[in-house]
Automatic annotation (TrEMBL):
Protein's name in the database: SDR family oxidoreductase
Keyword Cell division: no
Protein family membership: Belongs to the short-chain dehydrogenases/reductases (SDR) family.
Domain of life the protein comes from: Bacteria
Presence of the UniProt keyword Lipid biosynthesis in the record: no
Amino acid sequence: MSDVMEPMIHEDQLPGHESELEPKPDWQPRYPGSGRLEGKVALVTGADSGIGRAVAALFAREGADVAILYLCEHDDAAKTKEIVEKEGRNAVTIAGDLGDKQFCERAVKQVVDGLGGLDILVNNAGEQHYDEDITSITEDQLKRTFQTNVFGMFFLTQAAMPHLKEGSAIINCTSETMYKGSPGLLDYSATKGAITAFTRSLSKNLVEKGIRVNGVAPGPIWTPLNPSGGQPPEKIPEFGKSTPMKRPGQPNEVAPSFLFLACEDSSYMTGQILHPDGGNTTQS
């Protein structure tokens, strides 16, 4: 589409490759599966690495087939596909820009055709660029951040709706920055506020269809997003240490929140946000 801006992958090395990150994030599920997603098909955006990879791994362990959507990190996506298949589940990898409505429509069709349906949509992918001065945020960056984080979420949800049914679940990834604010992530934080409002509004819009919509607001989690440009290099050694737990979280500490909201354990919850953030949002 001519009106779709190119993802900002040259300005600040975003998105990052987990295969190049040291130390490696912990994505491994911590417990044996109990079949909570048996027979389900899940589409997870940004599933090549970080939180998305951990979600894909845990969903597969719980019985789901998984569609792995990602931008361009083919090595990471192949590794996530291998992880899902080692759990005995089917996986497909689909590369493209979520900010392109036509791509989202093609991707959902590929998921449904390849895996036989769609039960769970996880809108996890996000774009983040660090700027402490609001005047240094370019118009292109502002548009691109909203295009990935907000427009992409709308486009993919719109494409998924004809395939979702009673009992389906949508889980959106917002952020602690929506609640605490972030002086260096002005555009990113604004998108996360929009995502939270979208989650709450969509939950009311779809409740009569039996489709639950909830969100997860992670705190500082060790993924490629931050060391690849989402934070300045000098801040990385202290990343996450300002939380009450004095450390960053790991992706496999966040994935169980997505699982809980995807399965029947949360059958009486919609429009809610979970906060795996090391206690950060308890601080004023």
